[in-house]
């Protein structure tokens, strides 16, 4: 038996319609569908080598060896790949991301998308995009959306087979940019895996999920028509609804810092003055501020001038996960 190896890269994504809560947490079948945009320039690159001599899977992330829960999560994806390919070899996984881990951009989406592609290629499996998206989903739900390119919709589905993401528009469909306003975070936040489990404890989650098909339709239409105003209003509503669920879970998850609200209010103020911008916030205090590329200079300058903003990271619309070499 010889070593089987492949390298793949993937981008993280920012959700316009959020995934929050699972109907099946083992399969990571979401309570509702979601829509996102891949983030160009921010990249995770992962090499997987199945080696006959390895007694265990080994994981290195950004130069540091990872054991425990992080390794178990990766091994569970490798187990699925080994089962599909009928191989028993353990693997060495080396992963590097070019964006800071404290930047409020979850690396799990790009990491599990790149892992799914590299591992299946190394094992000699030629999966379809939908099959890859399903596999990435098992590592992190949002990773399903980092497999296809551009603007992406993840269909919630009722079964493993039905729950995958596909592109609804290519990266060059609309030249939007994401300016991530980085705020100084106070303490360690509750991770999304624990957060999803708390979603049903909020009395607001059922209403959020019931209304999701309407928000998905409005968001999809706004993207297809490049209707910035409509996109701005549905994305801000969806983000506020997810945070209302988080804040009313038991125990409550309160991700905002005072500076988070400062940015949200500033974005609404700038929009009322004619600057095309809107915000969306994931499971952390940082604020993603979306705008057309033409408004990027002014948006970034404005954000840097706000109290509590320590840095601004900028990304365009990214392509699909792809193989390297
Ligand atoms: O894929 P996870 O388990 O990291 O969950 C992602 C959760 C949010 O980022 C808050 C929303 C989303 O749809 O990306």
Briefly characterize the structure.
By secondary structure, the chain is of the alpha+beta class. The chain has nine helices and 16 strands. Bound molecules: (3R)-3-hydroxy-3-methyl-5-(phosphonooxy)pentanoic acid.
Describe this structure in words.
With 325 residues, the protein is an alpha+beta fold. The chain folds into 2 domains: 4-173, Ribosomal Protein S5, domain 2 (2-Layer Sandwich), CATH 3.30.230.10; 176-315, Alpha-Beta Plaits (2-Layer Sandwich), CATH 3.30.70.890. 35% of the residues lie in helices and 25% in strands. The chain has helices at residues 69-85, 107-122, 129-139, 192-198, 205-210, 212-224, 228-247, 258-272, 296-304; strands at residues 4-10, 13-17, 22-24, 29-30, 34-38, 44-51, 58-61, 64-66, 90-97, 151-154, 165-169, 176-183, 278-280, 287-292, 309-315, 322-324. The strands form 4 sheets. A 6-stranded mixed β-sheet has the order 8-7-9-6-1-16. The chain has a 4-stranded antiparallel β-sheet with strand order 2-5-10-11. A 4-stranded antiparallel β-sheet has the order 13-14-12-15. Strand 13 (278-280) and strand 14 form a beta hairpin. Helix 1 (69-85) packs parallel to helix 2, helix 1 runs antiparallel to helix 3 (129-139) and helix 6 packs antiparallel against helix 7. The chain is globular and about 65 Å long. The model has no long low-confidence stretch (mean pLDDT 96). The site of (3R)-3-hydroxy-3-methyl-5-(phosphonooxy)pentanoic acid has 14 residues, from helix 4.
């Amino acid at each position: 038996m010889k070593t089987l190896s492949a390298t793949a890269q993937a981008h993280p994504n920012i959700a316009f319609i959020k995934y929050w809560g699972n109907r099946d947490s083992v399969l990571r079948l979401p309570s509702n569908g979601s829509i996102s945009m891949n983030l160009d320039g921010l990249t995770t690159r992962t090499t997987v080598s199945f080696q006959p001599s390895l007694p265990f899977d080994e994981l290195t992330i950004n130069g540091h060896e990872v054991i425990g829960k992080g390794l178990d999560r990766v091994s569970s994806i490798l187990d699925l790949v080994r089962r599909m390919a009928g191989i028993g070899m353990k693997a060495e996984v080396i992963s590097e991301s070019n964006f800071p881990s404290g930047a409020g951009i979850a690396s799990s989406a790009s990491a599990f998308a790149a892992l799914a592609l590299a591992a299946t290629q190394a094992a000699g499996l030629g999966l379809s995009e939908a099959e890859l998206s399903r596999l990435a989903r098992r590592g992190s739900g949002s990773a399903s959306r980092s497999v296809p390119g551009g603007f992406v919709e993840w269909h919630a589905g009722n079964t493993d087979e039905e729950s995958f993401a596909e592109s609804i528009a290519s990266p060059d469909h609309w030249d939007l940019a994401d300016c991530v306003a980085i705020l100084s975070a106070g303490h360690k936040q509750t991770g999304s895996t624990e957060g999803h489990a708390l979603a049903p404890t909020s009395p607001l989650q059922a209403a959020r999920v019931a209304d999701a098909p309407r928000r998905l339709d409005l968001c999809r239409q706004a993207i297809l028509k490049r209707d910035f105003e409509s996109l701005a209003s549905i994305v801000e509503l969806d983000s506020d609804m997810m945070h209302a669920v988080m804040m009313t879970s038991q125990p409550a998850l309160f991700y905002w810092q005072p500076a988070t609200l400062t940015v949200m209010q500033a974005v609404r103020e700038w929009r009322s003055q004619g600057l095309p911008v809107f915000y969306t916030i994931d499971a952390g205090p940082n604020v993603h501020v979306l705008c057309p590329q033409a408004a990027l200079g002014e948006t970034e300058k404005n954000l840097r001038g706000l109290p509590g903003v320590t840095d601004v990271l900028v990304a365009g619309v990214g392509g699909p996960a792809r193989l390297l070499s």
